[in-house]
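Per your request, structure below.
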């Protein structure tokens, strides 16, 4: 990979990004409308996911363990299901506070989306909620609570959902690498998960960095072999620059959705910049001479090498070029007819935000936001509006009203001094352009918008009230969230 070249784009990196943009013609998903599996005929897999406490030795084998939160006592509980399955997931709340379960990136009926107040009531301690999800899209997804996320996901309540596609090329090895930092004291307990100085700026960072709950991993793959890495940033705050040293590597999917393979070396600085909630699939070809490969986060001067892959055995006939995944079968926005909207991410203060409520005849007008699910202060907003915090408890009107089946091109402008990974529920959008010209065209459910940047995404609207928010959890809980009402 290339060495970092300071904050700006190097000439080489810029050319690389241009080459990447040229790849957009490849993206031609089939026109399958909403691509819903005919639910009554799809095979159903049933799982129960119970949120509760568990223990994990995060500080090292000889140090005190940490009481974390997990689904079914398993840190980063991982589900693997074939595409086309219908997942019936029963969320059981074994914690002492309210929660809900949200399957991030899955296109599903709105009623199973897990957003308290907006799509379902908060699940109280001891309570449960049944989700029925069509798994139409293959890829690397994850799930997490949608209430007090800084507290619950911050203490580890995150699971991984892998939707397998039998049409995928065969890899010689596959590893799931789930990245998360923890805010720990020396006794293994948690430090304050959010502090005003973090919440109002880049976020409150953890200093204990982990991959799958360990400080780093030693993995193996055959020399000359093809490895699939599914890398998830499930941290609350940290933006990472993922790169590979020692082997050839291609980006083959973003947020689960395949794109035309892009060499990591052709991306700006030779890395993929990934904010909280973003996932990538990387195809790594191991060197034939048996030398090891390192995978790391190169964003800070202090590089975090989270996985070393050593050669073990070798493949008889090494392949050439990248192994592309099947093209995504997503509703493709019609750019000729798309309605254009623009939203601006802003700093905000309690004093500046209006407490506007839905009209009284709206079914949601009487619902009060549960105090557990909102922060106490407003630091952020979208288009001069903020999701309620503190004593503002009314559900606000939607940021936009849209029509089911229509195409929308949404520009997201970042007027703040900090990057924001912006997520829309229930859709996969196509990332069309960046004013900084740094992104290949691809499908995603979350897009990182840099300070001063404007990114345009487009999608075919699916019915429901879908939240649109920053996935730096403290930003979301201090105002940077709204919703689209699609009817
Ligand atoms: Cu990971 Cu509201 O989402
Ligand atoms: Cu943010």
């Amino acid at each position: 990979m290339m060495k970092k070249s300071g904050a700006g784009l190097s000439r080489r990196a810029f050319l690389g990004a241009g080459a990447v943009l040229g790849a957009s013609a490849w993206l031609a998903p089939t026109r399958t409308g909403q691509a819903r599996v005919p639910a009554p005929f799809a095979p159903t897999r049933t799982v129960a996911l119970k949120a509760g406490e568990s223990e994990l030795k995060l500080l090292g084998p000889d140090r005190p363990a940490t009481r974390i939160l997990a689904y079914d006592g398993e840190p980063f509980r991982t589900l693997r299901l074939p595409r086309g399955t219908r997942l019936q997931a029963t969320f059981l709340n074994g914690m002492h506070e309210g929660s809900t379960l949200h399957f991030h990136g899955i296109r599903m009926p709105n009623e199973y989306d897990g957003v308290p107040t907006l799509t379902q009531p908060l699940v109280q301690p001891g309570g449960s909620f049944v989700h029925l999800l069509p798994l139409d899209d293959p890829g690397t997804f994850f799930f997490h609570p949608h209430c007090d996320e800084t507290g619950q996901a911050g203490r580890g309540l995150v699971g991984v959902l892998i939707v397998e596609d039998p049409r995928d090329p065969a890899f010689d090895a596959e590893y799931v690498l789930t990245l998360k930092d923890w805010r720990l004291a020396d006794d293994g307990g948690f430090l304050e998960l959010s502090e005003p100085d973090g919440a109002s700026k880049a976020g409150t960072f953890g200093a204990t960095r982990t991959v799958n709950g360990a400080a780093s991993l030693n993995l193996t793959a055959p020399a000359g072999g093809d490895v699939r890495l599914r890398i998830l940033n499930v941290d609350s705050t940290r933006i990472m620059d993922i790169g590979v040293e020692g082997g050839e590597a291609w980006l083959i999917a973003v947020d689960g959705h395949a794109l035309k393979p892009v060499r990591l070396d052709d991306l700006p600085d030779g890395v993929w910049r990934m904010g909280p909630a973003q996932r990538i699939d990387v195809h790594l070809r191991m060197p034939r001479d048996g030398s090891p490969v390192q995978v790391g986060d190169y964003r800070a001067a202090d590089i975090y090498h989270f996985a070393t892959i050593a050669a073990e055995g070798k493949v008889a006939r090494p392949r050439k070029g990248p192994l592309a995944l099947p093209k995504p079968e997503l509703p493709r926005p019609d750019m000729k007819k798309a309605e254009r909207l623009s939203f601006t991410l802003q700093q905000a203060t309690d004093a500046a935000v209006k407490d506007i409520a839905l009209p009284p005849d709206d079914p949601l007008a009487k619902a009060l936001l549960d105090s557990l699910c909102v922060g106490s202060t407003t630091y952020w907003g979208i288009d001069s509006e903020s999701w309620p915090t503190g004593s503002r408890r009314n559900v606000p009107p939607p940021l936009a009203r849209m029509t089911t089946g229509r195409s929308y091109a949404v520009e997201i402008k970042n007027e703040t001094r900090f990057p924001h990974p912006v997520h829309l529920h229930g859709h996969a959008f196509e990332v069309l352009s960046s004013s900084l010209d740094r992104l290949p065209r691809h499908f995603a459910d979350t897009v990182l918008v840099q300070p001063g940047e404007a990114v345009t995404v487009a999608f075919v609207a699916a019915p429901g009230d879908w939240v649109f928010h920053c996935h730096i959890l403290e930003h979301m809980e201090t105002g940077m969230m709204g919703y689209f009402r699609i009817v």
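The chain is about 5% helix and 40% strand.

Regards,
D.
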